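I hope you will forgive my troubling you with a question about protein structure. I set the record out below, with my sincere thanks for your time.
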Amino acid sequence: MKQFLTGLALSVLTAPVQALPPEAQEAWREDLAVYASELEARHIDLHHTLPEAIFQARLDAIIAELPELTEPQLIAQLMTLHHELGDGHTAIPLWGYGYDRFPITAMFIGDQLLITGLREQDSEFLGGLVQQVNGLSVDELLSRLAPIAPFAENEGSLRVRSSAYFPVAPLLEAIGASDTSETLTLTVQTASGERDTLVLPARPAEEYGPSLQATLSARESLDPDAVLAQARGLSFVYDADHALGLIRFDRYPQAPEMDQFAAEVVSHMRSLEGRNLVIDLRENYGGDFYTGLRLAHQLNLLDELDWREGVYVLTSPLTYSAAMSNAAQFSDILNARRVGEPTGATPCGYQDMGQFSLPNSGLGVTYSKRQFCFAEPVEDALAPDVLIPVTVDQWRNDEDAVLDWVRSDIQSRQNAD
C-alpha cells in the first residue's frame, strides 16, 4: 500500500496534468473538512483499523497536494485513504458521479481477467482473457485498482469491486493505469486462443449500460414466461422434474412487497407439492436483512419441504452485506446448505451503512453505523458447505455449475428413495 501511494504521488508530480484551479482547491478544502468531521461524528468506530493520527496526517498530505492534483487524482487518493479505514461499508462509491466509462465488463477469476460484457461490434473478444491493459500486466492492474476499491472486505469482494471500477476512465488515468482517459487499449487472448488488440473509446456514463449488448453469465437464465411470482429484485420459478422451487433474490424490496412475494411463493410451492427450495443470493449486494427474514418467516410455514436436506442457499463473492447476513441466518433458521463460493462480506464486522454528500463536489461518502457477528468461527468470509468454484470455461459456456450441483444432489436423493 505504501509503495502504491508513493507511486501515485510520483505520477501526480510528473504527469502533464490540468490541476485544480484555485477556486476548486478552496471548495475541496471545505469538502475535506466536512469529510473528516462527518466521519468522526457518524461512524461507530472510525479508527478501528487506521489510527486517528495516521488518518489525519494522510488527509493533510492530500490537502497539501491540492495545487498539483486533477480532480480524478484527488478522488483516487481520497478513495485510497477511505479504503484504509478498513471496513467495506465505509466507502466512496462514485454513485451518480458521472465519470466516463469504457464499454466493457470484466471479472477477475483467480489470476485471470475475463471479459464478460462488450458492445456488439466487439463481441469477437467476449470471453477473452485480458493479457495487458495499456501495457500493464493483469497483476499490476489489480495492484493499482485494489487500493481504491470500495466495499471490499476480503479477497473475493476485492476482486469483484476492482473489476467493477476497472472501466471508469478517469480513475484508470489517475492511478497510472492509462496515459489517457479517452481510450483503453487491451491485449486479449480470445476464447479461440488467438492474441489480438482491442481499443475501446470512453463513453458517457449514461451510455455505459445500454452499450453492453454482448454478455456472458455463469448463472442460469430465467425464462420470463416461467416466472410464477415476482417483486422488485425477486423472481420465483419451479422445476417440476426436481420438485424444486427457485427464488432468485438479487435485490431487497420494501417489506410489503416481500410479504406479498413470499405468500405467493408459499402458495405455489404447496399447490405444486414442492419438496426442495433454492434461494439464490449469488448476485445480491445487500439491503435490509430484516426484510430477508420476512421471507424466511413465511417459508418456515412450508411443512411440505424436505427440511432435512432440501433447502439450499447459493452464494458467491458478490454476496455482500445483508445478503451475506441472510445466507448465515437461513443456514440456521431454514436448515439450508450453502452452495457455491465464499461470500464477499465477512460475517463479523461493521455494517448498516449510512451516507452523506460533500457540500461542494456532491461526492457521496458511506460509513458503518453498527457492528454485527453472524457466524462462528470468525473468518473473513462466510464459507459454503459445498464449495463449487466458478471457472472461466463455465462463464464462456453459460454453464451454471452451482445450480447443476443442486439438481444432481436432488436427483441422487430421489433415486435413493
